[in-house]
């Protein structure tokens, strides 16, 4: 018959059978009976063979948790300057790729270098555009035409009929709400009215209507030249 002795401080001691009672009392042990033929191999547990009282108890000298704690650690490889340089270069490439995607397909950051959109946007203003926004009538947009960045207000879309009269504009024979402070005139236009906006194009007018560098000269602006709706502007000069 076997007995298992459990205690809190029993990891490095050998308890002989004849002393198990005193040991149990002095170490606050719990003595559990185990049936013959059952394994009693437990880390930190002493096993006494009462059939052979002269045989010392078998004790696991180190608990499993202590074994794991004292296990030798593998030496860490020293990281060289080339390793850190490679990581920095990789982060730089990833950051540049993310910025390129954002500024190409999602948003745009521009500085206005013209007064064609005055007074809404002034020369030198910082402009943030949102490329995913679908422009509506009256939306201020940025677009690039003939290699030059321009700003203008959307008046009509592909298939619409635009007519410009003195001081008012009609789209599909309906007058539109135009809050621009400068008067609109067809004088000097390079297109004939009524003008049918080509498909996949928008008709754009400058807020500063005396500047004819808009759809009155260029006609419809292809959607591929649009750089997004202006969602934020900040004055950069004269602050």
Topology overview:
Elements: E1 2-6, H1 20-26, E2 30-34, E3 45-49, E4 58-59, H2 64-70, H3 81-106, E5 107-111, E6 126-130, E7 140-145, E8 148-157, E9 161-165, E10 168-171, E11 174-175, E12 195-196, E13 201-205, H4 215-218, E14 221-222, E15 226-234
Antiparallel strand pairs: 1-2, 1-3, 3-4, 5-6, 6-15, 7-8, 7-15, 8-13, 9-10, 9-12, 10-11, 13-14
Q: Can you walk me through this structure?
A:
By secondary structure, the protein is an alpha+beta fold. It has two domains: 2-70, no CATH class; 106-234, Ribbon (Umud Fragment, subunit A). Helix content is 18%, strand content 30%. It is built from four helices and 15 strands. The protein has helices at residues 20-26, 64-70, 81-106, 215-218, and strands at residues 2-6, 30-34, 45-49, 58-59, 107-111, 126-130, 140-145, 148-157, 161-165, 168-171, 174-175, 195-196, 201-205, 221-222, 226-234.
| Sheet/helix structural class | alpha+beta
What's the end-to-end separation, in Å? 95 Å
The main β sheet shows up as: 7 strands, antiparallel
CATH topology of the largest domain: Umud Fragment, subunit A
Number of strands: 15
Low-confidence stretches: 1-17, 24-45
What CATH first level of the largest domain would be assigned? Mainly Beta
What is the helix/strand order? EHEEEHHEEEEEEEEEHEE
Widest beta sheet: strand line-up: 5-6-15-7-8-13-14
Overall spatial form: elongated
Q: What is the count of helical runs?
A: 4
């Amino acid at each position: 018959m076997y007995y298992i002795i459990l205690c809190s401080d029993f990891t490095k001691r050998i308890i002989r059978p004849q002393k198990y009672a005193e040991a149990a009392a002095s170490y606050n042990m719990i003595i559990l009976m185990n049936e013959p033929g059952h394994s009693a191999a437990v880390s930190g547990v002493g096993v006494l063979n009462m059939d052979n009282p002269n045989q010392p108890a078998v004790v696991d000298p180190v608990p499993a948790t202590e074994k794991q704690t004292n296990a030798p650690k593998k030496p860490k490889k020293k990281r060289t300057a080339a390793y850190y340089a490679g990581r920095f270069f990789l982060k730089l490439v990833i950051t540049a790729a993310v910025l390129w995607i954002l500024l190409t397909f999602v948003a745009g950051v521009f500085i206005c270098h013209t007064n064609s959109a005055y007074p809404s946007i002034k020369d030198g203003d910082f402009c943030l555009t949102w490329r995913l926004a679908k422009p509506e009538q009256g939306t201020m947009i940025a677009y690039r035409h003939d290699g030059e960045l321009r700003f203008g207000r959307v008046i009509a879309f592909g298939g619409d009929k635009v007519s410009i009269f003195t001081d008012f504009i009609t789209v599909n024979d309906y007058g539109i709400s135009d809050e621009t402070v400068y008067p609109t005139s067809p004088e000097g236009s390079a297109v004939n009215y009524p003008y049918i906006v080509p498909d996949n194009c928008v008709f754009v007018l400058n807020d500063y209507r005396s500047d004819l560098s808009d759809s009155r000269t260029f006609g419809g602006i292809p959607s591929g030249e649009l750089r997004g709706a202006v969602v934020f502007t900040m004055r950069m000069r004269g602050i």
